[in-house]
From TrEMBL:
Pfam families: Trp_Tyr_perm. Keywords: Amino-acid transport, Cell inner membrane, Cell membrane, Membrane, Transmembrane, Transmembrane helix, Transport. It is a multi-pass membrane protein. InterPro entries: Amino_acid_transport_2 (IPR018227), Trp_tyr_transpt (IPR013059). GO terms for cellular component: plasma membrane. GO terms for biological process: amino acid transmembrane transport. This is Aromatic amino acid permease. The gene is mtr. Gene3D superfamilies: Amino acid/polyamine transporter I.
């Protein structure tokens, strides 16, 4: 009898899908809300995103284990909803690639002195080749990058955690203490940091049932939340709130955040470890997201798996975000915010609609069901709509904006 995969393994897969370059945007987007309200915002987001993943899992129970998010959405909600859902999946992938290309160019500019545009072109030319070559090449480089990320994160962030100043962490020097209004604008970035939903069908197939997949999803989002809290406490306990001004002015760009951190971290080795972690996080996310978009477009355009077919797919995957990055190098937080607003469609609204439709089918109220009944479905949809709305209100200057 074959042994069932462990919950620890599945939880780590979900956590690794969540944790990536998106976490680099959390400190800048949460600077206004600061420690308590930022942690509250990401905790609420984690709960909603876990439940929305379970709703997706619930809708899959009527289908074969090999079923995909795409085919279930098409079957239950129709071609038009599925097309719009796919469009948002592509948009999120494209905007994330754009954010990673822009940030890597700026970081490499700091390290090498070459122009950020040339650095971005070289970054894409070298590292997108892993995606063009094969999934196996991505698998191998990802293992190396994740191991490197873990080591640099443990060394760098634990070094910062030891030096946390409680007065800085709690913003004692600030007489105003207005934090709550700024938490709303943080939600789109927080949502991007829990985007694992394209892996739900893989988890179900991995375990062969919904119940174990449910606990693996929960375990993964708890691990991600713990890492995000540790990261925010380490940053906010070292870099005073008012020193986020230059970072926010530059659109939350990672290179500016790293430069500000260099000024407050006494140890050069800790500073180098944080820089190494940031670059590894951007690189591993770039390759992971790049592969997802590449496979999505290969299926969409029906490119064949030959050198010519993969080259065509490479062009439509990496060229548009690279050109956009060179022409319009927006800030990291701006790009991640747009990704979060679009991701509300496939990470909140569509999973809730799928669960609602699933419950009307024969046997819909039997077997695995996400908790909270129809009230929870409504709550997840409202959270998704509000998160997208907060992003656009923030962009229009209608929400309180922290400028340092």
């Amino acid at each position: 009898m074959e042994k069932s995969p462990s919950l620890v393994g599945g939880s780590c897969i979900i956590a690794s899908v969540c944790v990536g370059a998106g976490m680099l945007g959390l400190p800048s987007s949460g600077a206004g809300a600061w420690t308590v309200w930022s942690i509250l915002a990401i905790s609420v987001t984690m709960i909603v995103m876990t439940i929305s993943g379970w709703m997706l899992l619930e809708s899959f129970k009527h289908y074969d284990l090999k079923v995909s998010f795409n085919s279930v959405t098409k079957d239950l909600l129709g071609n038009k909803v599925n097309f719009f859902n796919n469009l948002t999946v592509y948009f999120v992938g494209g905007i994330l690639l754009y954010a990673y290309i822009t940030s890597s160019g700026l970081i490499l500019q700091e390290l090498t002195g070459m122009s950020s545009q040339l650095a971005s072109i070289l970054f894409v030319a070298v590292f997108s080749l892993f995606v063009w070559h094969s999934t196996r090449a991505v698998d191998r480089i990802s293992v190396v990058l994740i191991a490197f990320m873990v080591l640099s994160f443990v060394f760098g962030v634990s070094g910062m955690a030891i030096n946390v100043d409680v007065a800085v962490l709690l913003d004692v020097a600030n007489p105003e203490r207005q934090y709550a209004p700024y938490a709303m604008a943080m939600l789109p970035v927080a949502l991007t940091s829990f985007g694992y939903h394209h892996s739900v069908s893989s988890m179900r197939a991995y375990y062969g049932e919904e119940r174990k997949a449910k606990y693996a999803i929960l375990g993964g989002t708890i691990i991600a939340l713990a890492l995000y809290c540790f990261w925010l406490i380490s940053i906010f306990g070292n870099l005073p709130r008012h020193e986020f001004g230059p970072v926010i002015e530059q659109g939350g760009n990672v290179d500016v955040l790293l430069k500000q951190l260099d000024g407050v971290i006494a140890s050069e080795s800790i500073s180098k470890a944080i820089n190494a972690f940031s670059m590894a996080a951007i690189l591993s996310s770039f390759i992971g997201v790049g592969l997802g978009v590449f496979d999505f477009l290969a299926d969409f355009f029906k490119f064949d798996d030959t050198k010519a077919g993969r080259t065509k797919c490479w062009l439509v995957t990496f060229l548009p975000p690279l050109v956009m990055s060179l022409l319009f190098p927006f800030g990291f937080i701006v790009a991640i915010g747009y990704a979060g607003a679009a991701a509300t469609v496939w990470a909140c609204i569509v999973p809730a609609l799928l669960a609602m439709k699933s419950r009307t089918l024969t046997g819909g109220n039997q077997g695995f069901m996400a908790p909270g009944g129809n009230a929870m479905i409504g709550a997840v949809i409202i959270f998704g709509v509000l998160t997208a709305l907060f992003h656009f209100l923030a962009m229009a200057g209608k929400l309180p904006s922290f400028i340092g």
